[in-house]
Amino acid sequence: MTSRIFRSTVLVAAVVLICSLGVTMGVLLRHFSSVRVQQLKDELSLAATATEQYGNSFLENVEASRFRVTWIDLDGTVLFDTQVDQSTMENHSNREEIMEAFSLGEGSAVRNSSTLTEQTFYEAKRLSDGTVLRISTNQQSAWALMMGMIFPIALIAILAIALSGVLAGRMAKKIVEPLNNLDLEQPLKNKAYEEISPLLRRIHRQHIQISEQMETLRRKTDEFQQITDNMQEGLVLLSHEGTVLSINPAAKKLFDVEDNCLGKSFLTLDRSASMRDALNNALDKGRGYLRYSHGGREYQLDLSRIQSEGTTIGAVMLAFDITEQLNAEQMRREFSANVSHELKTPLQGIIGSAELLESGMVKAEDSPRFIGHIRREAARLVALVEDILRLSQLDEGVALPTEEVDMLALAEDVKAILLPSAEEKNVEIVISGESFKVQGVRRLLQELLYNLCDNGIKYNLPGGKLSISLAQRSITVSDTGIGIAPEHRERVFERFYRVDKSHSKLSGGTGLGLSIVKHAAAYHKATISLESTPGKGTSIEVKF
Ligand code: ADP
Question: Quick check: pTM over 0.90?
């Protein structure tokens, strides 16, 4: 700005100087020219009077240095010239001023020399005898005058420009200094120039606007940070070149990376071809998908292109943990297959026996056996359907009404229900320990205890024992039965898992009893632990 003010000022000074010099010179030249013409006219009138009186004798005595006087006859012949021998001079009748004087009485003309450096002023007057007297003088032309004055003009111009340069420099500095010292943080407190007040007010308004926008931006960034930091899903923001712009803690954990991955290509974090394809698909076609395994869990990676005004500016990757979903799907598939199988087997038994009875091939004395078979299989079907319904109710996770349940009283109830089958199998049921109360769903707690005790009887040996012992918020069901081998202990809680299928079926088992126990315990936030010695017995503790 300083240099601009400086340049402009010097330029203006130079232009003003040159123009004023030009105008001044023009005015002076005009003035001097008109003075000279008037002088010539005066001299001519004196010379004319003298020539009329004295003729050649006057002209011969005229001082020839300042003016040149020429006397021209009526036919244009030069009668006398104060500078040149008149006999050598050509006829003057066609000269502009002479012609004018012959016709009008007076004539004047100005002619330039061939070099343009000189001008000759002519004034002519007709004398009383009809001849014409002409007087002329030379003067330097405006151009020659200018050329002659070029040195002093240049000197004056240089001095003037130098002076204006110094003054302009100081002025520019003085103008700019208050502007340089402006406090733009507090624009309204500046008192520099009245003219820039609107600008300062605008800066002040923009300050307020910017700080509000910054605050909004900061809040939004904070919100984004809070949300992404606490997200279960992994989130990665990538540039259009695939470099990592932002990555949340869940994604860092998933890809085993630290903060220093920012700015690096995502493909250096995971070099697999499938990852590269998914990223390219997202950037080129808009979407990319990928299954990703890490730490024994399965993730679904969804990549989406981000565009701004039709240009791809990056991609966002979301990683969802789908392990539970996959497990649930797997379980559902297995469960459906198992249910169909479990339902089909007893139905086939029933149909087979019924067909035999229908065909009359069964002897009368064998009929009760077949009918008994049909009844048992049908009873198993009912038990199975009931268990399936119970499990699906538990799966739905519907909140059930709770109540305070006395666990000792509950054990007595279960004992009463199971007593007939226990007696049938010659198994003694013993209840011991002190009662405690559980805030829970009575029906589920009863099913839990029933299934444990039912197993304790079913898989017991004749003459065996089933003990239900209550301790501090825990209930343990122990039997002296066949026991469970170590390799089956983890799996017996799975749906339809049975160590010995035929034994289970014979005793009316559905393979769902311990699954119901597991679910009912989980519903009451209780833990289950199983101890078993094959051939000696099994003990299952449920701790509330
Ligand atoms: P089931 O209806 O066949 O009894 P469960 O889910 O109750 O089904 O039990 C799963 C399997 O675990 C049973 O088939 C059996 O092989 C084994 N099991 C359960 N409880 C006992 C126990 N007390 N003693 C020995 N084996 C048991």
Answer: no
